[in-house]
Design a protein that fits this description.
With about 180 residues, this protein is α/β, with parallel strands linked by helices. It contains nine helices and six strands. It starts with 10 loop residues before the first strand and ends with a helix.
């Protein structure tokens, strides 16, 4: 198994389609956990000064990004899309030369999977935060995670990814990341 190391100067966070109407279709307890871990990823990415890119799948139908995520993001400009993949030209442009992509979002077996597949095909290395992705049905999430791994994603958790990016304790960033993942 090849080893991997996340690097701050190579990583970005991609928040895929965490939208109001899509969230309304999710199981409440699982949704609360995913929103919590997504917000931890956003806070950690901010502390580490990583670019954060947000997509919205057909916002006319699925609504805007969930309000709890929007609060954490502050000022942002979502990439609107109709393709299931979030690896659309505007996202690729925003990723630029950063080849490591932390992924959170929904749904695991559709938009997240297709994004992982397309990122891999374009030479990016996806790191899928398993605790911050979901599908309406647990079986779709489980199979989606397997599909993502087979398509080239490293399966991590938000905390594992952030501490890998951090590398050491005793820094101001460490305190911010520690607070984010609590």
């Amino acid at each position: 198994m090849p080893t991997f190391r996340l690097k701050r100067d190579q990583a970005s966070l991609l928040v895929v389609d965490i939208q109001e109407r899509l969230c309304a279709a999710m199981e409440r307890d699982a949704l609360d956990r995913v929103l919590n871990r997504t917000n931890a990823a956003i806070e950690g990415a901010r502390a580490l000064e990583l670019p954060i890119i947000v997509t919205e799948q057909y916002p006319k139908g699925l609504g805007p990004t969930h309000s709890l995520v929007k609060m954490r993001l502050g000022s942002y400009s979502a990439v609107e899309k109709i393709d299931f993949t979030a690896c659309v030209p505007d996202v690729a442009t925003r990723l630029g030369e950063r080849k490591q992509v932390l992924l959170v979002g929904m749904e695991t077996h559709v938009c997240v999977f297709q994004t992982v597949r397309d990122l891999t095909e374009k030479g990016f290395t996806p790191f899928l935060c398993a605790d911050a992705v979901m599908s309406r049905h647990p079986e779709d999430r489980r199979v989606g995670l397997e599909m993502c791994r087979e398509a080239g994603a490293h399966i991590v958790t938000v905390e594992a990814a952030l501490f890998d990016l951090l590398g050491c304790a005793g820094t101001p960033e460490f305190k911010k990341v520690s607070a984010a993942v609590r």
